Amino acid sequence: MKTILFALLATFYIPAAFAQDSVEVGSRMNTFKLDLTHSLLYRNAYNLSWERLTKQNQSLGITVGIQEFPKVFNLGENIEGKRSDDSGGFKLGAEYRFYLKKENKFAAPRGVYIGPYFSALNFNTSRDIIYTGEGDTREARYNAKFNLYSLGAQLGYQFVFNDRWTLDLVVVGPSITRYNAKMRLEGDFEFDSEDVQNEILDALIDKFPGLDDLLEDKELDSSGRLNVVGIGYRYQFLIGYRFGKKFKKN
C-alpha cells in the first residue's frame, strides 16, 4: 500500500513541479480541501480540511471527517466473519503551518511548510462470527473500538494553480501516538473468549498501516482493553479550492 501511495504522489508531483512556475499566485485567505489519503486505506472515508491564513506566512488548519473500518473476513484460526457488518468512525484534527519565507519564492499558502499537528481517529466495528474450534460450532458477535491520538510535526509542500486550485502533500509527519483498543464478545458460547478476542484483535490490527509491528504480541487485558503509546507517522495527499477576497501580495 505504501508503494502505491508514493507512486501516486510522484505522479502528481513531477508534472506539477514543472507547470507551476508560469502561474502567478494571488493570496486568498481560505482553502477547502478533500483528503484523498484515507480514501485509499479505508471504506467510505470523507475527510474535509479548511486552511485559513492567519499571518503573512502562517496558517491554521482544521480537519473533520467520517470513515469506516475496512472489512475483514479472515479473523483468525477457526473464526469466520459474516459478510454483513456495522462499522463507522470519524476523524478530527488541527494543525498550524509556518511557510518558510527563505525557501519559498511565492506567498503562502504556496511552498514548503513545517509545523505541529494533532489528530484523533476513531473506528468502531461490529460483526457476527462463527467459531468452529473444539469440535463445535458457535455463533457470537464482537464489538470493537479503536482510538488513535497523535501529536506530531510535519513537513510538506503545497502547489497552487491559477490562484484557485491546490495540491497539498505532507511528505514527513512523525508523531507520538496513543493507541487504545477495546473488544467485547457477546452471545451464548462456551469457548475461551479471551483467546478468541485476541485473535480477532490481531486480524483487525493488520488493517492499520504500520500498527501491526507496534502492537505485535500485545494482548487485551481482562477487561478487553489495550493501551499503547508509540511512534506514529502521517502522510497526506489533498486537493483543494481557494476562495475569499484577495489581500496585498508580497
UniProtKB/TrEMBL annotation:
InterPro entries tied to this protein: Autotransporte_beta_dom_sf (IPR036709), DUF3575 (IPR021958)
Keywords from the UniProt entry: Signal
Q: What is this protein called?
A: DUF3575 domain-containing protein
Pfam families under this entry?
DUF3575 (PF12099)
**Keyword Cytoplasm assigned:** no
Residues of the signal peptide: 1-19
What superkingdom heads the lineage? Bacteria
Source organism = Algoriphagus jejuensis
